[in-house]
Design goal:
68% helix; elongated; 6 strands; alpha+beta; three-stranded mixed beta sheet
Length: 218
């Protein structure tokens, strides 16, 4: 086998390089076109992205607005319901308060009616004791006994919230008094003044148990 001389070896090495150069020169324009196309595509993507982002923003705000409107509607409904419940509670409280007051008045009325009926039965006894206390009596012990009995009766009436109607020296009041006689007024005495009490009157609260029987100066 004949060895290759230096010239042939160099020619062999230069031949592939010569063949590669045209191929590289042919590929260069394609690469440049690809490089030119890449920025264009990037620009197109950038141009499309703002439009897409703007649409997404509008959709997001629209969704949030709808959610906000829904929450407002629920809040208004809850406030209206709360107002109804508050009004109902106030009405119930007012009705209960009225019921409590009415029940208390009825209970007081029944108690007063019962006490009035019982006291009415013993007023004649008190009238007799009053006349005995006003009568002249030589027996001091007897007089003392009558006064002690009247004092005990007065304390018992006070515990029952029964009070005597003040009449003597007061202007005549038909709501609490019955005039059984009229007499001319004394000097300096005003007309219509009670000058004498024939029979004491009693009341319990605003309820009259018995009107006072009086003499009026006219």
């Amino acid at each position: 086998m004949t060895p290759m001389n230096e010239e042939n070896k160099q020619a062999t090495q230069e031949q592939p390089q010569a063949e590669t150069a045209p191929a590289a020169e042919a590929a260069a324009p394609a690469q440049e076109k690809a490089e030119d196309a890449a920025p264009a595509e990037a620009k197109a993507d950038k141009a499309e992205k703002p439009e897409k982002t703007e649409k997404e923003k509008k959709d997001w705000f629209g969704k949030k607005n709808r959610e906000l409107e829904s929450l407002k509607a629920k809040l208004e409904a809850a406030e209206a319901k709360n107002g109804e419940l508050k009004d109902q509670l106030l009405r119930t409280a007012a009705e209960y308060d009225n019921y409590r007051k009415r029940t208390a008045r009825e209970a007081d009325q029944k108690f007063n009616d019962g006490v009035s009926h019982a006291v009415t039965q013993i007023l004649s006894i008190l009238d007799t004791l009053d006349r005995a206390a006003e009568a002249e009596c030589a027996d001091a012990n007897y007089k003392k006994g009558v006064m002690m009995t009247l004092d005990t009766a007065a304390k018992a009436l006070d515990k029952l919230h029964i009070t005597e109607i003040e009449a003597l020296g007061q202007p005549f009041d038909p709501q609490f008094m019955n005039a059984v006689q009229q007499v001319p007024p004394a000097d300096g005495q005003e007309s219509g003044t009670v000058v004498q009490v024939f029979q004491k009157g009693y009341k319990i609260g605003d309820k009259i148990i018995r009107h006072a029987m009086v003499v009026v100066a006219e």
